[in-house]
Amino acid sequence: AVRLRDFLSKRITGGVNLLTARRNSHPIELAERLVADLTLEEFDHVVVTGDVTNLSLPGEFQRVSRLLKPLGGYDDVTVVPGNHDIYTRGAAKERRFESYFSHLVFRSGRDRSGWEFPTVKELGDVVLAGLCSALPTPLLTAWGRVGHEQLDRLQAALGKPEYDQRFKIVALHHNLHPRTGFAEATASLKDRDEVVSRLLELKVNLVLHGHTHKPHRFAVARGGHTMYVVGSGSSTQCSADADRVARYNIYSIEEGSLARIRTRVYDRARRRFEWLV
Fold first, then answer.
1. What is the phi/psi pair of residue 127, to 5°?
2. What whole-number distance in Å separates Cα of residue 257 and Cα of residue 167?
């Protein structure tokens, strides 16, 4: 149900990229195998850090909404938007991402008055906050920004005394580590330093991000507190590059600490996910 006029925007470059460099790199079959693999494991919660679509078209959101349905509802799944999910001004104005995933993101569900980031969920001894770093950007750019207002709301939400003893996780799309060349110039998080500083101030324990298709991990310490930042890489990329092939991480939180991270990686030959040794 895609019309020619749908590409009279930034989508024209995204569409060309999808038909050329990224052609067949994110097959639906692999995404289906990913969800099937997730349903076989007993997870407390699934976090999706964005770019569930390519061009933020309604048909894409409909397809992904159906795809994620077996994973559960609000208490089981959290999704934050990526730059491809708020790809155009039209998608942002219509709140298209929120329209399809509000039931997984906001406690208010379909009530538009409650569609505000950050979203905060209490999951036993864990508190999970989802930020929106995505916004429409000009051609050939994919940068993001969280913004002062959203960070202030996060401060008010996670700064509550009752969360002092809980393990704090923040999920957002854009990465928090510097990259090189064109990617750093056109696809970085504009307020990265402020975001990192505010998260450390809140004593966030773990940050999960998307955006980069290659897995990356690092830690930041301040005043005796250490915050771990992890990007799992793409979970749906069918690549011959061992560092970029589809994968996802499993985080074990025990006694208020990050006990371990295990990874399942897609085996292209066997067409299934297996444990990374």
1. -120, 130
2. 7
Picking from 226, 250, 247, 246, the residue whose alpha carbon sits closest to that of residue 238 is 246
Q: Cα–Cα distance between 143 and 179 in angstroms, integer?
A: 12
The whole-angstrom separation of Cα 262 and Cα 247 is 10
d(CA 34, CA 71): 11
Say if CB 207 and CB 227 are below 8 A apart. Answer: yes
Q: Which residues pair with 272 in a beta bridge?
A: 267
Give residue-wise pLDDT tens across range 49-104: 999 999 999 999 999 999 999 999 999 999 999 999 999 999 999 999 999 999 99
Pairing relationship of beta strands 225-231 and 216-222 according to DSSP bridges? antiparallel
Among 2, 55, 43, CA closest to 248? 43
DSSP 8-state code for residue 172? -
CB 149 within 8 A of CB 107: no
pTM beyond cutoff 0.85: yes
Rounded to whole angstroms, what are the CA distances from 56 to 3, 110, 165, 182, 266?
13, 19, 38, 23, 26
Tokens representing 204 are 């966030």
**pLDDT tens digits, one per residue of 129-138:** 999 999 999 9
Q: Contact at 8 Å (CB) between 235 and 273?
A: no
Kind of pairing, strands 225-231 and 206-209? parallel
DSSP structure class, residue 59: H
Q: Which tokens hold the place of 274? A: 């297996």
Contact status, residue 187 vs residue 141, Cβ threshold 8 Å: yes
| CA neighbours closer than 13 Å in the CB half-sphere of residue 84 | 17
